[in-house]
Amino acid sequence: MNLYSLAKTFPNEEMALAFWIKTRWPNGVRCLACDHDKCYLIETKGTTRKIYRKFECADCGLHFSPTANTIFHDSHLPLTKWFMAITLMTEAKKGISASQVARHLGITYKTAWHLCHRIREAMQEPKSMKLGGESVTVEIDETYVGGRRRGQGVKGGKKSKTVVVGIAERDGSIHLQRVKSSKDWHIRPVLREKLDKKTEKVVTDGDKKYKSMFPKDRHVVGIHKHELYNKNWTSTQTVENAFSLFKRGLVGNYHQLSADHLDRYLGEFCWRYNRRGLQPWLFNMTLENMATRKPLPYKDLIF
């Protein structure tokens, strides 16, 4: 779904609302309180005399919004603007900043920032997802995200950086996650949670900490200086390419990220990367996720 197709498909709010209702309740609208299957779409006026469309349950009489208890919860933006923001984020290979979204939609930066984070919440892989498996080769490495601190030199700059561990299947999916440090005891829990025990082969660089994590018969070590000399960098090329793509988006679009929100940005990048062959359907997939994810209030984002 590109912007041109979006404008043709949803030229007004009524058509956007009808599509959202069908996406959320494909088998018919059901009451959020009593689960009754007879609900009627009615129009009510708010305190500002603006007309709102809500459902009324025929059994318990509950009035509820079509967007209640979803990512859209308590949003005053038209669905057409939401749909445009979703399209921009799913089509942007390297991400898009809240400032640019604000300019496209004609909204404030604060609103755009909250909007983008709520869409990112829907663009997160399930926690149960694992990488690897039988006949699958997985690459593991870590990288540093962040910039230097003025007046503190290289060492001070390295201390201010955030460590990100990456797990990548060759010709498959990836997982990037922030960790406290590159030490063994901080990386092990991530691998224990995300790496399938039946993975055929695990490829890492020459870092000593990885030697004790995997059986020797399944562990392949690549020495980068030898690969550079032979001009044959193949050991961790997949995960390194993923790191490079994310950092290009960071420098070119976001410029800087808070470490507190880094995992959500990483999740968005991985979700889009893992579905790189499903580009025409990303809009619908994101919208379906937004119907099932819990609301994300602004106060929860600013801690």
UniProtKB/TrEMBL annotation:
SMART domains: DDE_Tnp_IS1595. InterPro entries: IS1016-like_transposase, Tnp_ISXO2-like, Transposase_Zn_ribbon. Residues 130-274 form the ISXO2-like transposase domain. This is Transposase-like protein.
